[in-house]
Amino acid sequence: MKKLLWIDLIKVFATFLIVVQHSISYSFTTLAVESPDWKLINFLFMISRTGVPIFVMCSGAGMLSRERSIREIWRESIAGLLKVYIGWMAVFGIKDVVQIWINGENATLRVMVNAFLKCILFGKYHTWFIFMLLGLYAVTPFLYLIVQKKELLRYFLLLSILFTLLVPILSGIDGLSRINNVIESVHMQFVVGYPLYFLTGYYICRCMDQKWEKLAEIFFLAAAFAAFAVSTAVSERTGTASQDVYTPLSVCGYLMSGALMAVFKKYGREERQSAVVNKAAALSKYGIAVYLLHVLFVELWTKQGGLINLLYAALIWLLSLGIGMAVYRIPVIKRVLFIQKQ
Hints:
mainly alpha
């Protein structure tokens, strides 16, 4: 597949959004929901929740762009992602071992080895994305067959939207929960969850009509306005911060994420871009480092709450990016800690 500049641009943007999400999540859950500060945090948290779905859509657009053998997927895509995951988790493991040794409490060899292995085996709270992506890679040969026919692709997306986004709504409506239980008993697992985004990314990249791209901003603004209004109202009524209406597997979350990707395609498809845009797109190769590394600084700096965490988010992104760029220049380490071009 020809390299698409706008795909790299939106990956960089999505990485920044994920850093913002993790940096302000403490403020989202601790600030008073009636305060103006929380409303601003809620709005930014809502936008930041599109980061992971955007990454999944970009992965789908790339992985489904050509036929890949099962051997290729396992030896290159899956093995390559596992290598990067283990490499970065080893960094976290070393950090934990050093921390145990410095603290000196129960700093036995067994405890330190267990801490190191725990990082590699179980990861951190943000590495669920890696395992989810590995699952999508594993079923890519089946998904590739679907995208070969637009009719099948649209049918899959229709079923996935129905069972992933719409049916769960029934469980929250009084009197309809029994209907939801009956529908769930169909067990449509193949069309439930993030395969929706994996195939949506391909659809937006390869099949979407330009007339729909023209409406992308309208879809995004409408979904964002509805999500913000409903989440604010529900949070104020319950006294607890609520994000249910704009999670990735919600109608508003799906519309916002898909519309954002369409906007980037709409304005970024030109063959010739400025030097600044090209340099910004080139930052995408450091995305895996920023994604896996940034939580180290999030855990250190963003536990006091408040709007100051917005500033920390920008600093954490820049610091993680800088470290990623520095590490990328070391040939041996680069091959272990970064995704290689396929």
